[in-house]
Specification:
Distance between the termini: 105 Å
CATH architecture of the largest domain: 4-Layer Sandwich
Helix content: 25-40%
Oligomer: single chain
Structural class: alpha+beta
Radius of gyration: 44 Å
CATH class of the largest domain: Alpha Beta
Strand order of the largest sheet: 2-1-5-4-3
Length: 588
Amino acid sequence: MTAADVRGADPGDGRLSTPSDVRVPARSAEAVGRPSSALPPLAPDRGHPEPDWSEVVEHFREGLIVCDPDGVVCHLSPVAERLLPEVAEGRSLTAAGVPALRCGGVDEFAHHGRRLRIRAVPLSGNRSCHYVEDVTESVTRADALLAERARSAFLAVVGEKLGNPLHPDRAAAAVVRLTVPTLAEVAVLVLAPRSGRARWWRASRADDEAPTVDSGVLSTTALPPAIAEGLSGVEPHAVDWLAEQAVDAGWLPGLTARDVVARVVPLPGRETPAGVLLVARRSTRWYDEDDVELVRAFAARAGAALTTAVLYRDQAEVADTLQASLLPVEPVTVAGVQWGTAYRPAQASLRIGGDFYGSHRLPDGGSVFFLGDVSGKGVEAAVFTGQLRQCLQALHRVESHPARLLKLLNDAMLETTQAHGQGRFATMVLGVVRPQRDGALTLTMAGGGHLPPLVLRASGEVEAVPLSGMLIGVVPDPRIGEVTVRLEPGETCLLYSDGVTEARGGRRGDEQFGHERLVNAVTGCHRVPAPALAERVEQVTCDWLAHGDHDDIAVLALRATGPGGRPPRHLHAVPTAGGPAEQRETRP
């Protein structure tokens, strides 16, 4: 190639022209080993011979193909000859059979396992020059960077989506839904078995539709071998059989083992895997090492989310079980007695508190009943009430006289509090109710520092029972008051905690509800059934509070129904977190 072969192009458009105007691509200049400005001058210098241009272009990183006006190759650089072995000097360029050489401008194409970029430049005299560059490495690096960015973005979305579900079922559904379509066309998650059964979730996607999720249960003996192996913490290596096992399990409907490729990855847990993830997609998209590493990274995040959800579920189950054991128990059925209860803890979200009530049936047909309040609030107070109730359940079998039973309870409390250094105490009304032949009820009540009960007479009068006594759990031999009350048919005795009378509200929000307002609230309610009366006391107290903070509230009412009275019905008013305006739970 001589200087005459590269003359005639316009120097302003970057084409080869006169020797002094030859434009060399930046990469070509770097290949020579110095910047473009450092190239030897192409114009003949006085006193020096004109250089051999073929020696210069042979060192370009780009290959050069120069064609005459008829399209016949008249010059082929060594780089172009190596990249396009089909092209030969003296032959037509189109005869090489490379479609990209027939087009003008810039084109990029795959050729013999490499990625080439070709750029056509017109020369003077209807000649042309084609620059050919191997861009395989740069394209590979760019693709790898884009792929890594896509993987990082995917894992970031996974971390965000899996940070919220705190229930294993919802977390499992979210895991398989996120898997499709990035990692698989069908994804199956099998959780670690419980009680010999394993739950599974599957997400599948048809065309461009959103993934659909379904679930099922398998016995541990019916799990595919690869899944059982994965649940032991080992990633199966025999991948050829995974698709067949997935098809046999019915997880790949409408597909055969030849249609798909599959991988199984365990999901890390605390000690053993939280589950196993099976991913499958068309056999045309084989899982390479980068894909498998992405599946493993996804599995690590999914395993952490599922482990957290399972731990939260286990803790919630324990908390629910403990709460259920600490909730007040409805009184037992007694002939001629209608019970009414209402309960509202200070912390509605806990459902439990320091107030308690209940009853135990006696062999003679009567019943021991009680309502009390321990010092403190929340979980610690609720635990203490549970201890008291357990003591009463045991002690009433050896002593049914109210005053003596209350003293036995006092001794048990002292022993417990001194052993644990708690220093807790309680107030309580404990009584024994016995039906009479005429339909009346005889109530013998003992007081341990609690508020005096109220009696709603058939005449409409409200009486305060003169019951006094000392706190329970403070001194070894407390003074216990005792009184006997007779309830005629249709009359009611009302027991309540200080959460009612000490509720603060009103216009300024700091005025106590008080004993007088309570008496006024129940005056005229002597014909009201016991459940409705207990609910009314709880409701007027909450209205007075106006959603403000309050102590635990407990109400126990017992009404003499007389002979042939209706069976008792209880209202259990445990509010939801929304407050008194929401519907309360009612139990028949």
